[in-house]
Amino acid sequence: MIYLLIFIVILFMYYSFRYAWWTKVVDLKNPRILMYHMVSSHKKNARFNGLRVQPEEFEKQIKYLKDNGWTFFTMSELIEKKDELPFKSISITFDDGYEDNFTNAYPILKKYDAKATIYVVVDRHDREWSSKRKKKNNDGELKFEPKLKDEQIKEMINSGLIEIGSHTMTHDNLLNLTKEQKINEIQNSKIEIENKFNITCKSFCYPFGLYDEKDVEIAKNSGYTNATTTTKGIDSLNENKKFELKRVTISGKDNFLSFKIKMKRGMRGLNK
Ligand SMILES: [Zn+2]
User: CA dihedral defined by 139, 148, 41, 49, rounded to 10 degrees?
Assistant: First the structure.
């Protein structure tokens, strides 16, 4: 009997720690901005499987959102309509520009008529950027992951479902750069994307979520309307937050309960 009691207490503590059930549901008038990277099967022994949401999981998540009354917006729409957004507004974002965003995610988004924003790195092919954050991440896993081709990007833009934002020229660590280099990464990437795809590039995303106040200034002065970070959580769209927006991180390692909890509170536990 006593063992059963101890077992129940331990189980309770484990679930409490893992899901932080007592934290508050964030007001449903604050939009959820979800951060994805890849939509693909996991690779054996890979370092970055957390960045890979399996296609079946992704479909389950999008279907759940659709069935539960969430309305999808691109990032720039979210900002433009911020005073008239319905309860349960959501923005799906993808970082980096992996090819599976087109081959795996886009068909699902089309099926459910769900809008999304993809932040592409202008110079994204065959680039080792994961070591810019941690030197030991130099095994080429993300370098060899296929990236979106321009033709695929054009097709998605033409669908009206997908907004293309900038994730800089080279996915460098902005904190290590001079002012001129920062301007090249933040402002020139916008111009490149606009010229190549004949669009206005309104949304920006800081690589690795690493940035300082100078980067925020440059993003504002470059003519973007908004910028996202990797800070976990759910924000209101106040004027002073538009260039440092928090996001809800969707991990390839989340189970469905975690996903649902994150939609309510922005995080699964206390810091994830
Ligand atoms: Zn990135």
Answer: 40
